[in-house]
Amino acid sequence: MPVAPATFSCVISIAIWYVLLPLKAVYVIVAVSLFIVGIFVSDSLAKEWGKDPRRIVVDEYASILLPLFFTPMRLLPLVTTFLLFRFFDIVKPPPVRNAEKLKGGWGIMLDDLLAAVYTTIVIFVFKTLNFIY
């Protein structure tokens, strides 16, 4: 995707979420597997394409699956999770930006995983406050 490849990959992950969430164990296995494979794939590609190139989107594919796991299958929570994840992934609040400095696949994958953790924390706060979720 020449335009917004990370955002588009998140949309594809929503399809994975929609199909696999009812099968919780399978969902977790797929999410963890995508993350582990992503470390190796992005590490290999970064050697060829440079540090964290836009063309690598496995980090978004895998990482957004974490907050989506806690997102009910309703439109407003889904859109909120999507927007929160993209916000944290783009803004990269501390320590997200620091994780990006790690070498190779770890740096590529961990900054998005931390953005997913931030998103998940906000989801839990919203659930506690009975807001949207």
Fold and architecture overview:
There is one protein chain. The protein has one domain (5-128). It is 75% helix and 0% strand. The protein contains 7 helices and no strands.
Radius of gyration: 14 Å
- Overall strand count: 0
Summarize the main sheet.
none
Helix content: over 70%
Strand pairing plus helix content: what structural class? mainly alpha
Number of domains: 1
DSSP strand (E) fraction? under 5%
Poorly predicted runs: none
- Note the gap between the termini: 31 Å
Order of helices and strands: HHHHHHH
| pLDDT averaged residue by residue | 90
Please tally the helical runs, counting DSSP H or I stretches of 4 or more residues. 7
What is the 3D shape? globular
Give a brief description.
It is built from 7 helices and no strands. The chain is mainly α and about 130 residues long. It is globular, with a radius of gyration of 14 Å.
